[in-house]
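Hi R.,

Here's the chain you asked about this morning:
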Amino acid sequence: LSSERNHLLDVTLIEARKRLGGVIHTVKQDGFLIDSGPDNFITAKPWALALARRLGLESELLSTSEANRRALVVRSGKLLPIPEGFLLMAPTKFMPMITTSLFSLTGKFRMAMEMFLPARRVNEDESLASFVTRRFGREALDRVVQPLISGIYTARPERLSLRATMPRFLDLETKYGSVIKGMRCEGKKQKAKGSGARYGMFVTFRDGLQTLIHALMDRLNHVHFRLNERVVRVANKAHGSSVAPWSVALEDGTCLEADGVIITGPSRHAARLLMGVDKALAEQLSAVQYASSAVVHLAYRREQVGHPLDAFGCVVPVTEPSNIIAASFSSVKYEGRAPDACVLLRAFMGGA
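And here is the predicted structure, written out as tokens:
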């Protein structure tokens, strides 16, 4: 592989598992197509879509089904629809907000007041929970925003940086003085430009996300893949002692020499590998907190499920007595995920 400086690169990828892809893994069983980890990617961030196009996979992309493009939220044990036009933390349509039973009259009035609240003078970062309660009130956070955000990040909104996770909302407040006004203005601008977009917000591949992994393996013919091998230590030799300043020790006792090392594993593993290289960095990496979650896939005959499944899934607020934080109706969301007369669901458990 030639880099921009015309240097020949010799790349070795070391993977502890027996397969590539990490949490991306597609399983086909009994006519069901199951993505055991993530099952789609977001088009609002352009890089995954751009990579798919670069790999010639655009014809394999699959948008969410046109029907039932909505989500439900659990409220007092019942599944209620999230009001149409409610985008993550802000309502953009008034009538669905007025008629919904999800919020109290006081809560609806507090959210509507967001359009008249002054914006902060300084565009500083804050927690996601702080921003939502400041702009929309506590009820909006507890009943919709918290479960929606937990469904994405499996983390408490009090611990999430708004600038790192949802910077758009901070920018809307700064630019328009109101998140609701900003979203409505930008929505009108998008309509004026014409739809143009071929895909919805979420897309996947017809045969599952592992399509992307297989395509990358086929194209990366300059990379030496070493599967089922585990790195135990990374060392940086004294300057000038070797042409290759880095040493990578494997579990089987062998060592690889390298000009550069890229570590892509979880921070706690990276910390262990780098303890002998940069102790301060290793300690910072060790301090990164994770919230564990499990994905449970459930297959049923359609008549066994009493609910109409007229949505893509549901989210569960932390105030509800449930171990489930969200559920996705996979066979409703994307075609080809279940045999005829069957449904495929996936539940997310655990979280912060």
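One quick note: The mean pLDDT is 90.

Cheers,
M.
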